[in-house]
Specification:
Layout: H1 2-33, H2 35-43, H3 49-71, H4 73-77, H5 81-104, H6 110-117, H7 120-130, H8 138-159, H9 164-191, H10 197-222, H11 227-230, H12 235-259, H13 265-271, H14 275-287, H15 293-315, H16 321-327
């Protein structure tokens, strides 16, 4: 009986470990949903997209620094030239993603911007097929198509509004943000095979923060400002940047990067499509951005697509969760 109890306990533990990546990913999506709201509030203070993005990443790096020095210094010192190069390139594409997406929120609605920037499953899936020669199973393809269709309906609902021309420009910026973050995810998928979470995110976030800081400084000087004026942000603005660093960046993006160790890049990208729903609900509360019937239909299709993709991932994960957990030193 004692042996049976131990066996049952072990099975329960293994099931919990198998579910953990999905729970972490869901928490990351919830944290990421607050990002567009905090950014819109910061834009209301006349902070530029580069300043918002640079502040978000720089504060995140400063918060990570003590942990990186105490828990990841040895791993960081052991990174070879290829790993460093991939990390720097991933950081550059992450920086471009934030620049495009944050800029899009100045022109289009929160719902449309977030829906379009999370169309990355299409670009990730296409790259996986045509670049990495991977084969996607039919259920995953259906899930991707459903989530893409839901995102398209949300975007179309915004194109008939009073600011349709500005919205179109914002939609293009959001799509560029989707393409660049897809490259970031794919590089991360490759790099995470040999680099643990903490050294990886510290390397990538630091390189992204440097790129964004340079853009912010150049932009401020081009407007006739100075380095002093760049830091002349009210306390409320600093609190918003801190919130972006703690919530969407550290909790959200770090959860995505951690999940890439156990789940496929395509599924992680598809799951992130739940972010538009949370963002749209928050926009309704904070900015009174009401829903259109087409938007609601898009949200419903998004949820169905995520469920379909989740079932496909649970049925045939690219790396067994128990094996990945055993080999991980995170």
């Amino acid at each position: 009986m004692a042996v049976a109890a131990m066996h049952n306990g072990k099975e329960s533990f293994m099931r919990a470990r198998a579910i953990l990546p999905f729970v972490v990913l869901a928490g990351g999506v919830l944290a990421a949903a607050s990002s567009s709201i905090l950014i819109r509030l910061a834009q209301n203070l006349d902070l530029s997209p580069a300043t918002i993005a640079a502040g978000r990443l720089s504060i995140a790096v400063l918060l990570l620094l003590p942990f990186a020095l105490t828990h990841a210094r040895e791993n960081l010192m052991k990174l070879d030239a290829r790993q460093l190069r991939l990390g720097l390139v991933a950081g550059m594409f992450l920086a471009l993603h934030f620049m495009f997406w944050i800029s899009s929120l100045e022109y289009t609605s929160v719902a449309s911007s977030v829906a379009l920037v999370t169309t990355n499953p299409l670009w990730v899936a296409l790259a996986s097929v045509f670049v990495f020669r991977e084969r996607l199973n039919r259920v995953t393809v259906v899930g991707v198509l459903l989530t893409m269709g839901g995102s398209l309906l949300i975007a179309l609902s915004d194109s008939s509004g009073e600011n349709a021309r500005n919205a179109l420009f914002g939609d293009v910026l959001a799509l560029l943000g989707a393409v660049t973050v897809s490259v970031y995810f794919l590089i991360g998928r490759e790099l995470r095979k040999t680099v643990n979470t903490l050294p990886y995110i510290f390397l990538v976030y630091t390189s992204a923060a440097v790129v964004l800081s340079v853009i912010a400084v150049v932009g401020e000087l081009a407007r006739g400002g100075s380095l002093t004026s760049l830091f002349a942000i009210p306390l409320y603005g600093w609190l918003l940047l801190l919130g972006l660093a703690l919530g969407p960046q550290l909790l959200g993006h770090t959860s995505f990067n951690w999940a890439l160790r156990y789940l496929s890049a395509t599924f992680v990208a598809v799951a992130i499509l739940g972010e538009p729903i949370g963002s749209a609900l928050l926009a309704l509360v904070f900015f009174n951005e009401s829903f259109q019937p087409l938007q609601l239909a898009g949200f419903a299709i998004l949820l169905v697509g995520i469920v379909v993709a989740a079932r496909a991932e649970r049925g045939s994960s690219r790396v067994p969760v128990t094996e990945a957990a055993a080999s991980s030193a995170d």
